[in-house]
Amino acid sequence: MTQGRLTPQDRQRIAAGLAAGHGYTEIARRLGRPTSTVTREVARNGGPADYRPGEAQRASVRRARRPKNSSARPAPADPQGRTPEAVADAFEELTTMLAHTGLPQMASSVFAALYVTDSGSLTVAELVRRLRVSPASVSKAVGFLESQGLIRRERDSSGRRERYVLGDDMWYRSLLATAQRNVELAASARRTATILGPATPAGARLTEGAEFLDRIGEELVQAVERWWRTGSSTA
């Protein structure tokens, strides 16, 4: 496979592949590059929806011109034997996929950073350092992820710093939060149908939507609670 830095032509071909709906593996095959190269390139330049080859090329030039810090200490050895490049690839792959599902870009980055960290827990300072963003950006992303039930806040042992934690019940809490939002949306649809008139086409459409959301919400809660009870009993 081709090695070395991506060229402007490579980036144009990546953009063309994304526009055509090709997956990262297919784009990488056509370029003769590892899939991780394409994944990392797209993730660090706005994700598949916002990738711009010209801007990506300029960003690459800026990174290449940054002075190297020769006095920096080497990264500590990974206890699992993983290389920093492998961890970075995992982070960027997950960030890209989360953003592709509709999660905001910064929330995707914060969630992915927590997910690929073995402890599943990071402070604001650690997130700022890893993602190279402002504390305000992290705070906004954390607020969104909390509202989705995906993370929670905890105090560290000293009680002075907040940590953001995934938790073993993360998906359980997140899906219950989704079910609750469906309930609220169904109630709103019914109120709107009453205002418009249940017998009108718009009112009937809203009533039907509310019934669907109620049914899906009930089944989702039942499935989640059944899985949680089964998982807890076998843990």
Give an account of the 3D structure:
The protein has 235 residues and is mainly alpha-helical. The chain folds into three domains: 8-57, no CATH class; 84-165, Winged helix-like DNA-binding domain superfamily/Winged helix DNA-binding domain (Arc Repressor Mutant, subunit A), CATH 1.10.10.10; 170-234. The chain has helices at 8-19, 24-31, 35-43, 53-65, 84-100, 105-115, 124-131, 135-147, 170-196, 201-234; strands at 121-123, 152-155, 162-165. Strands 1-3-2 form a three-stranded antiparallel β-sheet. The protein is globular and about 65 Å long. The two termini are 44 Å apart. Mean pLDDT is 83; it is low at 69-75.
Short structural summary:
Residues 102-162 form the HTH marR-type domain. With 235 residues, the chain is mainly alpha-helical.
Essential attributes:
mainly alpha, Arc Repressor Mutant, subunit A, 3 strands, WH_DNA-bd_sf, Helix-turn-helix domain-containing protein, DNA-binding transcription factor activity
CATH homology superfamily name of the largest domain: Winged helix-like DNA-binding domain superfamily/Winged helix DNA-binding domain
**What's the N-to-C terminus distance?**
44 Å
CATH fold description of the largest domain = Arc Repressor Mutant, subunit A
Assigned CATH class of the largest domain = Mainly Alpha
Oligomer: single chain
Give the low-confidence spans.
69-75
InterPro entries: ArsR-like_HTH (IPR011991), HTH_MarR-typ (IPR000835), IS30-like_HTH (IPR025246), Transposase-Integrase (IPR051917), WH-like_DNA-bd_sf (IPR036388), WH_DNA-bd_sf (IPR036390)
Region (Disordered): 27-84
GO biological process, one term: transposition
Protein name: Helix-turn-helix domain-containing protein
